[in-house]
Amino acid sequence: MGIYTGRERRIANVVTQYWSEIKGPNRDWPERQEIDTAEIMESWQHCYIIEVNDRGYICENAGEKAVEFYGFEKNMCIDSKCSINAPFLRLYKIDAVIDKFDTIVDSKCPINEEEESESVKMRQVLLPLGNKEDVTHILGVTTFKLL
Question: What does the H/E/C string look like for the chain?
Answer without folding.
Answer: CHHHHHHHHHHHHHHHHHHHHHHCCCCCCCCHHHCCHHHHHHHHCCEEEEEEECCEEEEEEECHHHHHHHCCCCCCEECCCCCCCCHHHHCCCHHHHHHHHHHHHHHCCCEEEEEECCCEEEEEEEEEEECCCCEEEEEEEEEEEEC
